[in-house]
Design brief:
- The chain is of the alpha+beta class and about 170 residues long.
- It has 2 domains: about 100 residues, Arc Repressor Mutant, subunit A; about 40 residues, no CATH class.
- It is about 50% helix and about 15% strand.
- The chain is flat, with a radius of gyration of 22 Å.
Amino acid sequence: MYDPGEEQHGREGLGIAGDKISVEGISLPGLLILNTIHRDGEQRLGELAEQLDFTSGAVTALCDKLEAGGFAVRRRSQTDRRSIALAITNAGREMLKRNENMGGYMIEVIFGAFSQEELSDQIAFFKQLNDRLEGFAVSVLGQTHSADKSFADISQTNVSHPKRTNKFISY
């Protein structure tokens, strides 16, 4: 019987727990960190968090797992003892080499069944979404109630509120 809390194994070293994938005990975000330090060299944990848009706590937890697996090692800076960097180990390089086709395989599984026309349509839709993101944050923040304005002041302005047409998003 399937237990979502219990790791299932399909291929050697590939684990599935619920809807989360791990490769040789490392989650996909952990692999992202490992690939980044393999490609770019040793990096400070704060830089990794910023570059990958992870919280510092998430980077710390992922680094704990990478170190426990022997795939990476933390190094304290000699000049600034507060600064900690992460470097890949030989075991980390070997693990990436063993699983180098995993990314392409995942993309093939997700997109391989679509026709070329369907893929072209998806690309066009995603380009439209990307274009709509330009100025999105400024636009949304312009609709919020700020601390220096009273509700009465805002309700009397001629702010356009677009009618919601999508019943699936409930913000």
